Every structure is written in structure tokens, then in C-alpha cells.
Amino acid sequence: MNRGFGSAADRNKEPILAVLRGYVGTRPGVQVLEVASGCGLHAAHFAQALPNLEWQPSDVDPQALASISGFIQTLHLSNVKPPIYLDSSQSWETWGGLRPNSLDLIVNINMIHISEMKCTQPYAVNGSITPQSNMDFDYNLRRR
């Protein structure tokens, strides 16, 4: 089974893992949705390091979904669910059968800078974007 590789994902997996550990602790059965899992490297790395998580990877790209499946099968990751097709520009009801109140944590890594503007709008609160760094990021995205 083919597995992709992302150099950015490989570089930032440890710092992100450190942050995740702070959020999830050791409580068993933590349900996590990863939006835009890409090749699946993060899902595999985090699932191995945090066996108390039930990881739900997702992506909109069929090649990414195949790569995620490759990681799951090759590494025998029992706490990673089969990847689901998830288009974040569509309503959550279309997101692979996810049910309301079924998740403890949603993560999204390395996606915002490549997504359509309509996918980034949830980061504005009541139409306002703060702090300045987020305003600058929004401006940069809109210029593209």
C-alpha cells in the first residue's frame, strides 16, 4: 500500500504532539477528528504516541485517503479509524457519518493556507479577526 510523505508534516510532528499531549492527557477513548489529514503521517505518529486516542483521519483528496489507509495497514494502527472523505466547505452532515457530540477534539494542521476562503471564515468571531497576526494572515490569504 502506498504511503505519502510530507516534509512539513515530518518537521512539525513533535512540536504538535507536545501540544496535543497537553490537551488530551491520558484519559482513555478520546475521540479526535483530524480535518485534512494529508498523507496520514500526523495521524500515524500521534496515534502511536497517544494510544488513548481514537483518531479519525479525513481528507478531500482520494490519493491522501489511500495514503492514510496505507499507514494504518502497514503500522497496524488499531486506534486509527478508516479515513473518511471530508470537504470542509460543505455542511458537517456530509462529513462521513459523523454524529453530533461524538468528538472530543478537532485538529487541523497545515490546511488553512491552501484552502478556499469560505473554509477559513470560522476563524473570525462575529466577523472580527484578532489578534493582528491573524489579521495579517487573513490579508495575505485574500491577496492570493
Give an account of the 3D structure:
The structure is a single chain. The protein has about 140 residues and is α/β, with parallel strands linked by helices. About 40% of the residues lie in helices and about 15% in strands. It contains five helices and four strands. Strands 3-2-1-4 form a four-stranded parallel β-sheet. Helix 2 links the parallel strand 1 (about 30-35) and strand 2 (about 55-60). Helix 1 (about 5-25) packs parallel to helix 2 (about 40-50). This is Methyltransferase-like 26.
What is the rounded distance between the termini? 36 Å
Mean pLDDT comes to 86
Overall body shape:
globular
Count of helical segments? Answer: 5
Structure class: alpha/beta
Q: What's the helical proportion of residues?
A: 25-40%
- Strands, total number: 4
Order of helices and strands: HEHEHEEHH
Radius of gyration: 16 Å
Largest sheet: 4 strands, parallel
> Which residues sit in consecutive blocks of at least 5 with pLDDT less than 50?
none
Fraction in beta strands:
5-15%
Q: How are strands sequenced across the largest beta sheet?
A: 3-2-1-4
